[in-house]
Amino acid sequence: MINLIPLARSYSHAPISNFFVGSLVRGASGCLYTGANIEIPGQCLGFAVHAEQSAVSNAYMHGENAVTTLAVGGAPCGHCRQFINEASPDGEIEILTPNKPPMKLSAILPSAFGPAALGRKHGAFPIRQTNLTLASPASDPIVAAALEAARKAYAPYSTSPSGVAIKSTDNRLYRGSYIENVAFNPSLSPLQVALAQMIAAGKQYSAMAEVTLVEVQGAKITQKAVTETVLGAIAPGVKLQHVFAQPA
Question: Which of 52, 64, 148, 210 is catalytic?
């Protein structure tokens, strides 16, 4: 995993910092998932996706039941330690960095604030689906893909599941589920997760042809404004399709 960090780093989009980071996680299945940091040009730093977040979300979108190991070029920042903690509330995930012995998350995030602090018994893994439906069956594949992503969203704190699907110019679909964090700020919007999927597949922003957001009408929070803001920065010619679902 350490040897693959340069490969993961090669997918980094860092126009603001010019600081390129790559990460990998191993899922419970044994599969490896890459991640790289993503910065949105001209937008606030809060829109950035850290490499560790990208890798964990990649494993999440591929249906892993858990993440067991994470590798990155240096010790994860506090933001990422908090995000990783949602994926491994027991702190048992192993952190690998070059030329240093492996360490558990619990060793670098002592007295962690995790899901249990808000009464949750589980973290983001394994995925638990929400039964959402549309007013009429989704005949458009991109709407169906966004609905599938929304059903897989992890939103225990806002109870506002949402999902995004990106259709590329070669008709491929990249899904992103909203992934929350008990500390709120490290949460990843569905568009951020979908972008991480698209970039991991080697696509550039210019490959985006359509974007659809599915969320629950009247939910406590909405992803519409932030999704439109990010799209305006990276794909101004792409208009957001906004679709509402409802609990079944």
Answer: 52
